[in-house]
Amino acid sequence: MKEKIITAIDLGSFKTCAIIASLQEHNKIEIKGIGVAESMGIDNGLVRDLQATSESIQRAIEIAEEQAKIPAENIFTAISGQHIFGKNAAGRVSIANGNQASEIDQMHIESVINDAKNSIKMQAGTEHLEILHCIPQVYDIDSQKGILNPIGMTGFSMTVHTYIILAEANHLRNIRKAFDMAGFDEPTIVLGSIATAEAVTNEDEKKLGCIVLDIGGGTSDITIFKDGFMAMNICVPKGGKLLTNDLAVGLRTPPKFAEELKLEYGNANNAEVDPEATVLIEGIGGRAAVTKSLSFIAEITQIRVNEILETCYKNILAEFPYLDSLTAGMIITGGTALIKNINLPVDEVFNMPCKIGYPETVRFSGAVSRLESPDFATVIGLLFYSINNDKVFSKRTVIANYSNTMNNVFKSIKKFFAEL
Questions:
Q1: Domain limits of the chain?
Q2: Sequence-ordered list of residues with C-beta below 8 angstroms from that of 387, at least 6 positions apart, any chain
Q3: Which residues of 252-268 are buried (b: 16+ CB within 10 A; e: fewer)?
Q4: Matching CATH number, 4-82+170-199+360-414, of 3.30.420.40, 3.10.50.40, 3.20.20.150, 3.40.50.2020
Q5: What is the pLDDT of residue 50?
């Protein structure tokens, strides 16, 4: 039996992460290779430099391939940004056979979902947009409402209520072009928030209502779940990179060292920090190192974290003023979730319980320990998402896999002559 390979790639503002995995029996996942490369060319979820983005993708995948000893196949990539937004849409079809009610089958489901998609495409201003996801929520059959699975039921007409994710078509073309330039097949593009939620939430949390806040490098992605469905998706153009820049400027240190300081000594509760404790700060461009107090680092961290959270809160209230109905509270994830005591300002700003969202890796084998961190939540979620996606091992993908293998051959030849 041929090994079923999945490749997940998270295009972040700080890092590009690639995981090559194989699908085992009972939906178990074996991690074959992990590649992490510095992210270049992407900022706030947008491609700013196509060549640099392509090189980051190529480097991350090459590292994963070297470790896995197999080529990347069935590529899924996560994206985010303010160019992505959601809309509620309904589709309706007749299922009657003359004057008789008909039994609903999968073709009826596909037809009514397509009608919902078409209702969006017909709206003015959507010509430059592409549908990324159409998420069915509930169905109505004649006068029966709120049906979760209509297969096998009978009726004269059926309506579906959906949440549709749209994105700027030009940006999606840039993402696909970057993979093509790197020598890989066109990826399946997934909204990062959907992938992240796959990794850090369970069904109870989605049913009771929760907020998933993924604070990445360039953006903070907010997903609201209610009654088991995605109710809202919001992107705020503020992320951990702002905090890193604050530390770099405030401490007069290189951004790379500021990022290390943020994760090691950043604290969202300055009152907890020993005011006498200090740390040696690396100078810029060979300048002498200086000593700074940990309290000063915590002060910068606390101010910026509060600002990010308050901006997220205002954006959520403008779209979803029913926070009291979200019984399961907040799940905060992403690299910034590793900052000490970040749950405290969340409690203050949102007035709801908060937990740090670590990706669920029980079904994994291989190099799992490296991935048990909030900053790998999105790429782990892509693996879960891919298992439930019927494109993964379709005939089309088998053809794509052959094409991908040939691309890798030509890439190796090109690299050989370039070195000569």
A1: 4-82+170-199+360-414, 84-168
A2: 6, 23, 27, 29
A3: ebeeebbbebbeebbbb
A4: 3.30.420.40
A5: 95
Which residue in 257, 264, 195, 202 sits closest to 17, CA to CA?
A: 195
Distance from C-alpha of 176 to C-alpha of 28, rounded to nearest angstrom: 29
Q: Which residue, among 238, 284, 292, 303, has the nearest Cα to 265 in the 3D structure?
A: 292
CA–CA distance from 9 to each of 188, 281, 379 (Å)?
10, 33, 6
Q: Looking at 216-296, which runs of residues are DSSP E strands?
A: 220-226, 229-236, 278-281, 290-293
Structure tokens at 130: 């592409």
CATH class of 84-168: alpha beta
User: Three-state SS string across 137-178, please?
Assistant: EEEEECCEEEECCCCCCEECEEEEEEEEEEEEHHHHHHHHHH
CA 414 → CA 53, 64, 183, 342, 377, distances in Å? 19, 20, 11, 47, 34
Residue 409: what pLDDT? 42
Between CA 49 and CA 54, with CA 51 as vertex, the angle to 5 degrees is: 105
Q: Contact 154/41 with Cβ under 8 angstroms? A: no
Place of tokens 């094409």: 403
Low-confidence residues of the chain, pLDDT below 70? 1-2, 390-420
What are the distances in angstroms from CA 356 to CA 67, 272, 343?
30, 19, 8
Structure tokens at 399: 């053809």
For residue 259, the SS3 value is: helix
Phi, psi angles (nearest 5°) of residue 274: -65, 115
Q: Which residues pair with 223 in a beta bridge?
A: 212, 233
Measured CA distances, 258 to 12, 241, 243, 297 (Å): 18, 10, 9, 10
The C-alpha atoms of residue 166 and residue 82 are separated, in whole angstroms, by 11
In whole angstroms, what is the distance from residue 414 CA to residue 407 CA? 10
Residue 107's Cβ-count burial label (10 Å; 0-12, 13-18, 19+) is exposed
Give me 210's structure tokens. Answer: 């929760």
DSSP 81-99: STTEEEEEEEEEEE--BTT
Tokens at 355, concatenated: 């937990």
Q: Which of 93, 143, 142, 139 is nearest to 118 (CA)?
A: 93
